[in-house]
Write a structure and sequence with these properties.
The structure is a single chain. The chain has a single domain, classed as Nucleic acid-binding proteins (OB fold (Dihydrolipoamide Acetyltransferase, E2P)), CATH 2.40.50.140. Strands 2-3-4-6-5 form a 5-stranded mixed β-barrel. 23% of the residues lie in helices and 34% in strands. The longest helix has 19 residues. It is of the alpha/beta class and 156 residues long. The chain contains 3 helices and 6 strands; from the N terminus they run αβααβββββ.
Length: 156
């Protein structure tokens, strides 16, 4: 009987650890990321990912990517790492913001800037303010998300 209680305690302890592993207290748990920010400097921003923990950023971004038409035209503030790639299928270069590079499944959003020379060096951490949208690349059958950048801040 004592062994069964010991095993139960171990299982419950492991369950608590697993369920709270992604939790972080670096964000306001009462904040609604889809609501406009109250701060004067946040005026006009529909979703501010920078106010969320990494776990919540990925969760909110996944919601946006699964419901792209609902978020098209919304102004977003988001931080990530800049990279670019060449896709042989289309013969084009793509500029991306990579979110959560540390995880095994980072998210990418293509970024468009008015002046091509304004893109930072690959691997640079940046914060972007821009308008969300998506497009279908030459009828390939799936949509690509993008952020039309209004402002870029180099973090490192």
């Amino acid at each position: 009987m004592i062994i069964k209680k010991g095993i139960a305690v171990i299982i419950i302890s492991c369950l608590i650890i697993v369920l709270t592993a992604g939790c972080s207290d670096d964000t306001d748990e009462n904040a609604n990321p889809a609501a406009p920010a109250d701060d004067e400097n946040q005026a006009g921003i529909d979703i501010d990912f920078t106010r969320l923990s990494t776990t919540m950023q990925i969760a909110q971004l996944q919601i946006v990517l699964e419901n792209m038409p609902d978020y098209t035209g919304q102004t977003m503030k988001i931080q990530g790492v800049y990279d670019y790639s060449f896709w042989e299928v289309t013969g084009k270069f793509y500029h991306d913001l990579i979110i959560d590079c540390a995880s095994g499944c980072p998210k990418r959003i293509e970024i468009f800037m008015d002046t091509p020379g304004e893109y930072p060096e690959p691997g640079t951490t940046i914060e972007l303010l821009g308008v969300f949208g998506f497009y279908n690349e030459d009828g390939m059958g799936f949509n690509f998300p993008y952020l039309a950048v209004d402002e870029i801040i180099i973090i490192q």
